[in-house]
From TrEMBL:
Its EC number is 2.4.1.1. The keyword Transcription does not apply. It catalyses: [(1->4)-alpha-D-glucosyl](n) + phosphate = [(1->4)-alpha-D-glucosyl](n-1) + alpha-D-glucose 1-phosphate. This is Alpha-1,4 glucan phosphorylase. Its main location: cytoplasm. It is found in: Cytoplasm. GO terms for biological process: glycogen catabolic process. Signal peptide: none annotated. One of its GO terms (molecular function) is glycogen phosphorylase activity. InterPro entries: Glycg_phsphrylas, Glyco_trans_35, Pyridoxal_P_attach_site. Belongs to the glycogen phosphorylase family. The modification N6-(pyridoxal phosphate)lysine is found at residue 660. Its cofactor is pyridoxal 5'-phosphate.
């Protein structure tokens, strides 16, 4: 840095409001090209973002220097999705520049909060899996792991959801329509990525591959500042560009259309995020996306290693690669291919090196969500990789046989004409992890049972976590201020310190202030909820939220049936002093998921009916603000009183929404599923509302031949609600509209909504009663906050570093 004459402040966060203001003014003029009088909100936002980014760049260089000087083991997190959200406020808070930024902007006559809200969400992910990757990036910088995230720079992130007459409509998302101030384009960091073609005899023993088409992967780097800016990692996203030479050759031949073809393929690859959550897309373009970003990342990793090290056998000592789900599972075959075909290693040596570096996180046990590719398709798009997969499978079969296992134990990678990506990822990984204690146990007992018997040390658990910077410090200023006064701010980097709140749960004055913070969040939320969903939220109302992707296993339908039954009960007994509730639903359905979209329409139809009914006015309202995303989560979570985590037990791998809500003092109503089990273990049975069948009971009920009709017949409330939906009570213009839902509930009910309904109803009435003892409720809420520090993603990252990556943490 010295050589370019930059003076580097020792503490990059130390900048006065006056200095920052001057820098913002300079960026406005010289980076944006606009004067103060003509500047729009977005111009000011970009100018401030550049001024903040300036404070990150030097610590970024310094981090790289420290990693290089110590030759630290590097951790590469490969994820098809990063659900990041907004970056400005997060960067400002991480650098400790909140008051400086506010003051600087106020001095320029601009409202800082309006600027923050002007930033579009970076929505390069669908839901939990992508948000986990974003939390892990933040935590890798917070604890000082030499980490780097790899993904795809989609031109269009997750679609924008709106409602048209209550039906979900999707619009293209356009986050790059304005300049994205946080990234640096790195045209020099680019790799050609091939597809198709043929495999001939070559230097290595796997044969040399001659791809038919090639695109260029170009890197875009975003610095990821950790807490207090003391460590800054990188998120490297790949964008696909056409190959120049190819274009030119076709052009010179006068083949103008042919010249455009590679451009079309190239730009298609990183154009759009697949909007499916929990159901893989068996489409060729998806496979190309997966290979595209994985291949570019692996080449980048090898290149960085080889700049400093000679012996490839040392790769596992210097490199840990984490595969977030199976989407990058082709990393195994690709790494082997590069080692064999381009470096001349023998297959077995290459396999051992690859397996020494790779680790795989499983996110689901739902059979339909496990990724498989037709072998024919894989062979067409990646012919060389299919051959390598066959060799990996043969080696795996030999290991199985040597261990005395039957050859037909269902653990083959190739079977029924398909490549099972979960099995491939398992076989080529040193460690495989589940994301909650229950999920890991179920992995060992069910889907990965055979592989677990063969490699009993391989499956380990790392329960998910969430970053306390965004999900408490950033989103909940009233509670942050109270915590600061009560226990200081050490909890931001060490969330276990929230335990110091435990004794304060019995302090009436503290509880009052805690309740006041929750109330302040609701008051802050109310105008937005009124505008978005036409709902009046009084601060004394119980705010009940279910915010997450729409999927039948998450059972928004169970919540809705309870809403209908509650509406009926209130109408039938108006004299009762009912606990007033606002039920909030938020979430998107995959555009092709018909049942989930029908459930969205039903919620909107029920909401209209209930909200228009004077008989329940002030007692029950249903809100469904459209376009749930990270920013909406940040608004709703601090205000929530009740967190709905009601999936069919055994099907939610972990959940992270459950952690965010508990950490912000919402009590959970939930099944013993995913991390709910561990939340209960920590907050205590008396501070959470658990109901319903356990995973074992679900399996047993199914094995016995579950018949929902009997459950409906046994519950008059449920029967009435189902009958109302069936008879068009909520859809008088089209009484048959919800027939598919009703038929499924009465006939099949794969997710056991009816079996759990009565237990859920009873628990909800216990919640109504508990809400009336506000001192006791608040005591429970305080204990939830106090005892959920363990759900920090810092704890999760330390666990991965120690038990999986064998990598150091700086802090
Ligand atoms: C945390 C989060 C999720 C995951 O929620 P779950 O309830 O764990 O499914 C999904 N989407 C967004 C925007 C989130 O912030």
């Amino acid at each position: 840095m010295d050589e370019v004459g930059l003076t580097v402040p020792p503490d990059a966060g130390a900048v006065s409001a006056a200095e920052l203001r001057e820098r913002v003014g300079q960026h406005l003029v010289f980076s944006i090209g606009r004067g103060a009088t003509a500047a729009r909100l977005a111009d000011w936002r970009l100018a401030l973002s550049y001024a903040i980014r300036d404070r990150i760049v030097v610590p970024w260089f310094q981090t790289a220097e420290r990693i290089n000087a110590a030759d630290r083991k590097r951790v590469y997190y490969l994820s098809m999705e990063f659900l990041i959200g907004r970056l400005l406020d997060d960067a400002v808070a991480n650098l400790g520049l909140e008051s400086a930024a506010r003051e600087a902007m106020a001095g320029l006559g601009v409202d800082y909060d309006a600027l923050v809200r002007d930033e579009p969400d970076a929505a390069l992910g669908n839901g939990g899996l992508g948000r986990l990757a974003a939390c892990f990036l933040d935590s890798m910088s917070a604890v000082g792991v030499a980490g780097l995230g790899y993904g795809i720079r989609y031109d269009h992130g997750l679609f924008r959801q709106s409602f048209e007459a209550g039906w979900q409509a999707e619009e293209a998302e356009d986050w790059l329509a304005q300049p994205h101030p946080w990234e640096f384009e790195r045209p020099e960091a680019s790799f050609p990525i091939g597809f198709g073609g043929s495999v001939g005899p070559g230097a290595g023993d796997a044969g040399a591959w001659h791809p038919a088409e090639t695109v260029i992967a170009v890197a875009y780097d975003t610095p990821v500042p950790g807490w207090q800016g003391r460590w800054v990692n990188t998120l490297r996203l790949w964008s696909a560009k056409p190959t120049r030479e190819f274009e030119l050759q076709a052009f010179n031949r006068g083949d103008f259309l042919g010249a455009a073809t590679p451009a079309v393929l190239a730009e298609t690859i990183s154009r759009v995020l697949y909007p499916d959550d929990s159901t893989p897309q068996g489409r060729e373009l998806r496979l190309k996306q997966e290979y595209f970003f994985t291949a570019a990342s692996i080449r980048d990793i090898l290149q960085r290693f080889e700049r400093r090290h000679g012996d490839l056998a040392a790769l596992p000592d210097k490199v840990a690669i984490q595969l977030n789900d199976t989407h990058p599972a082709i990393a195994g075959p690709e790494l082997i291919r590069l080692l064999v075909d381009e470096r001349g290693l023998a297959f077995d040596a290459a396999f051992d090196i690859a397996r020494g570096c790779l680790h795989y996180t499983n996110h689901t046990l739902l059979p339909e969500a496990l990724e498989r590719w037709p072998a024919e398709l894989l062979g067409r798009v990646l012919p060389c990789h299919l051959e390598i997969v066959e060799r990996i499978d043969a080696r795996h079969a030999r290991e199985s046989a040597a261990a005395g296992r039957p050859s037909d134990d269902g653990t083959a990678i190739l079977g029924d004409g398909e490549v099972r990506m979960g099995t491939l990822a398992f076989v080529a990984a040193r460690r495989v992890n589940g994301v909650s204690a229950l999920h890991t146990r179920l992995m060992q007992e069910t889907v990965f049972g055979g592989l677990h018997a063969l490699h009993p040390e391989r499956i380990v658990n790392q329960t998910n976590g969430v970053t306390p910077r965004r999900w408490l410090h950033g989103c909940n200023p009233p509670l942050r201020a109270l915590l600061q006064e009560a226990i200081g701010d050490g909890w931001v980097a060490d969330l276990d310190r929230l335990e110091a709140l435990v004794p304060l749960a019995d302090d009436a004055a503290f509880r009052e202030r805690f309740a006041a913070a929750k109330r302040a969040n609701k008051v802050r939320l109310a105008p937005w909820l009124a505008e978005q969903a036409g709902i009046e939220l009084a601060p004394e109302t119980l705010l009940d939220v279910q915010i997450k992707r729409f999927h039948e296993y998450k059972r928004q339908l169970l919540n809705l049936l309870e809403t209908v039954a509650l509406w009926n009960a209130m109408r039938q007994a108006p004299e009762v002093d009912w606990t007033p509730r606002v039920k909030v639903f938020g979430g998107k359905a995959a555009p092709g998921y018909r049942m989930a979209k029908l459930i969205i329409k039903l919620i909107n139809d029920v909401a209209r009916t209930v909200n228009d009914d004077p008989a329940v006015r002030g007692r029950l309202q249903v809100a469904f603000p459209p376009n749930y995303n990270v920013s909406m989560a940040e608004r709703l979570i601090p205000a929530a009183d009740l967190s709905e985590q009601i999936s069919t037990a055994g099907l939610e791998a972990s959940g992270t929404g459950n952690m965010k809500l508990a950490l912000n003092g919402a009590l959970t109503v939930g099944t013993l599923d995913g991390a709910n089990v561990e939340i209960r273990d920590r907050v205590g049975e008396e501070n959470i509302f658990i109901f319903g069948l356990t995973a074992e009971e679900v399996a047993r009920r199914r094995a016995e031949g579950y018949a929902p009709a009997a459950c409906i017949a046994a519950s008059p409330r449920l029967a009435e609600a189902v009958e109302q939906i069936a008879s068009g009570r909520f859809s008088p213009d089209e009484p048959e509209r919800f027939r598919a839902i009703v038929e499924d509930l009465r006939g099949h009910d794969r997710f056991l909504v009816c079996a759990d309904f009565e237990a859920y109803w009873q628990r909800q009435r216990a919640i109504d009663a508990a809400w009336r003892d506000r001192a006791a409720w608040t005591r429970s809420a305080v204990l939830n906050v106090a005892r959920c520090g363990w759900f920090s993603s810092d704890r999760a990252i330390r666990g991965y570093a120690k038990e999986i990556w064998n990598a150091e943490t700086e802090f």
